[in-house]
Design a protein that fits this description.
Elements lengths: L1 H43 L7 H16 L3 H4 L15 H4 L1 H21 L4 H22 L5
Helix pairs in contact: 1-2, 1-6, 2-5, 5-6
Length: 146
């Protein structure tokens, strides 16, 4: 009986560690995404000088970020609890919708990479759909905090 209790305790601990890792991993990816978009937005707004090579590098990085956003790995069942997360319960009750929202964002990023913006105005134009996809996803699938 003692061995069974220890085994169940170890399993519970391992499960909570996996959930905590998933939360930390997805938060790291989203933080990276925000930093990339923030830098691109400054160029689009003229707050920093436009640099086509830097834009390409950052859009490629944003595309790589979107590609590593594996929903099945980052949002396993039970990872809505067990840590500090702003992931809304709607993710797990509407996983198909959440995946579709991510696909929309990933497609907008891919389109931005393919467009290869040559100036700040063109960069702003390709960032618009990315921002709309991000905002739409956050509206439904992220817990709002003040």
């Amino acid at each position: 009986m003692k061995k069974l209790f220890l085994a169940l305790s170890a399993l519970a601990f391992a499960t909570s560690a996996v959930q905590a890792d998933a939360i930390a991993d997805r938060q790291a990816i989203m933080k990276e995404r925000g930093q990339i978009i923030g830098g691109l937005s400054k160029m689009a707004k003229g707050e920093t000088p436009f640099d086509a090579a830097a834009v390409k590098t950052q859009l490629d990085a944003l595309n790589a970020n979107a590609e590593k956003f594996n929903i099945d790995v980052l949002f396993p069942a039970g990872s809505d609890t067990g840590g500090e997360t702003k992931a809304a319960p709607a993710i797990w009750t509407d996983m198909a919708g959440f995946k579709a929202a991510h696909e929309k964002e990933a497609a907008a990023v891919k389109a931005a990479v393919d467009a290869a913006p040559a100036d700040a105005a063109a960069l702003g134009a390709v960032l618009g759909p990315i921002g709309q996809a991000c905002g739409g996803c956050h509206e439904t699938y992220r817990i709002k905090t003040n």
